[in-house]
Sequence to fold (709 residues):
Amino acid sequence: MRVHAILLIGCLSTLSGPLGAIRAPAQTLSTYGTPGLVDMPTAEVLPDGTLALTTSNFETTSRNTLMFQMLPNVYGSFRYSFLRDFDAGVGLSRYDRSFDVHFQLRRETAAGPAIALGLRDFGGTGVYASEYLVATKHVTPDVIVTGGIGWGRLAGRGGQRNPLTALYGRFDTRQDSNAGGISTTGQLDFGNWFRGDAALFGGLRWDVTPQWSVMAEYSSDTYSAEAQRGLSDVRSPFNIGASYQFDNGVTLGGSYLNGSALAVQLSYAFDPRRAATPGGQGAAAPALKPAEQVAVASWNLAQGGPDEPQPPRLNDVLKSQLEAEGLRLISFEREGSSARITVENLRYGAAAQAVGRTTRVMANTLPPHLQHFEVTLAENGLPTTRIKSQRSDLYELEGDLDEAWRSLARAEIEDAPDRIAVDEDVAPFPRFTYRFGPYTQLSFFDPDEPLRYEIGAELKASYQPAPGWTFTGQLRQPVVGNLDASARPSNSALPRVRSDWARYASESDLRLSHLTADYSWRPGQDLFARVTAGYLEQMFGGISAELLWFPVGSSLALGAELNYARQRDFDVQFGFQDYDVMTGHASVYYKTRGDYHVQVDMGRYLAGDWGTTVTVDREFNNGFKVGAFATLTDASYEEFGEGSFDKGIRVEVPVAWLTGKPSRRSITQVIRPVLRDGGARLNVQTRLYDKVRDSRGRALAAQWGRYSR
Fold:
């Protein structure tokens, strides 16, 4: 611990320097899919929030990397590599999974270089396991020089005694990595970091134009594991490369490695905050009509005699106008100068946009004497939040440059009433909806097949007889794919709650994916409750109960869930197997003042193991999310098996981001290095926090910029 403290103090001391740091982003990505030269890393980073995808191919190696700039000075990456004939001794190629993390300790300034510390393959098989300390400096606006010292794989050429040995003698030795054979991945090998021999590397980049860059480097990586297997012919320590960056974020590159191999590389880097379809989000909000025009509208006039044509009812006009804006009217009442309305947002990714559209429809429809507006947002008949505003503010702030934020300052956001007073004239219940269309299911990183997929037809239906009550069902019919082609049996030492996924795919045809009855209600102020029963997911059925405490203006929420679950038959019809379990979690949810959201779940999992899951997401205001999770339980590494513990990356892309049209739908993909039984949680689709969070105070206020759109 003393040595690590000395190292930390030494790194922090580099933070001092003059003001005016140079924030030039990395121009090129290396063959590892991270900021670098050809193979070697640099101390650079990408613009904060950037997501980058890279594939590089040479000789018998293909590297495919997902990289995310999670903080202004920290990025992480997940890499999936195909190493053909790498394990030829046992007749196997290798599909290798690895994680990297890079910390920029010091930004580049006019007086000094950027300095960074990095870990490659710190939780994988060890094929690429290495650490580095690197510095990068612009010597001219277009020429950038990099020099560094590496350990592990980056100490293969010209390795010398580790300079850290002067601080602690044990830094002199490093255990042999697992690069020579098939290993159990996932364990963090802290004891090997920055140990063993160290070697120098370096190079330069010349940005010939804003698009063209050329690179040259001296590599300290001898590709010894590949060379020993006859897969690489290393003739030179020098690598050269060139890349061209297109305006759309795509970069095409080529390089000459080790004096013997040509490499081709394709990268795509983008900012999730910028939609793929510019200028979208649908039609503009309705313009405010003059108050006199609203006053003389037929539905606001007194009813005529029995022999005169009857004007449309106000309720019907209000309902139809809201439906045109993607809003479902649930209740409407008037009292004095106040108008109270409850709506369900069916269209907008931001609840604030739904509120803004609702108040504009009210102003264009209701008689002028109704000056106080109260809008209650509901989810499946469950009231979540109430927003109070003044009609006069809409007219006063119309066209104001700060219209949205000034309206937020004048609005009152408070907890919704416990119950919805259903308006029989509106007749919002019962309600039946359905959707029929295609579905896609993906499975990654099977040792026999890196990508398995299934495409089929899906029918989803929902019936709401009364507020809070929802009956839902989903049928799936697979059509094409190889998800059911896996012949690898589960070897799990734990109850096979997830590792038999291939049997669920191969032994089923028409699937009853889920069929549930759900009741949600408000037991008190800032409290939400739910009970769900039925076939909860593809592999388990049972009953689930949940309680959530979520103050309307708070960044913190607390939840508790208890489930009785029984494993379903492999045909995914109506039968059950013998295995059942009581499972449940206590959860803490916290939204930071920035883009980050943290969730901690502690409890018992489906295999009976006890532990904790930590999830950290970067959430942008447009709904795009990138996050990672890890679960550690009392199941040992040996019991868990390959992967050692459950972990993964999650990317959620709003449909509106892709199409430019408002939508509440999103596409979510979880990337797990391996799916095992430890740390497996029940997949309940109606958990309360995800249902109500976007319409609670802090989240609602964060998206208020879309109030007037």
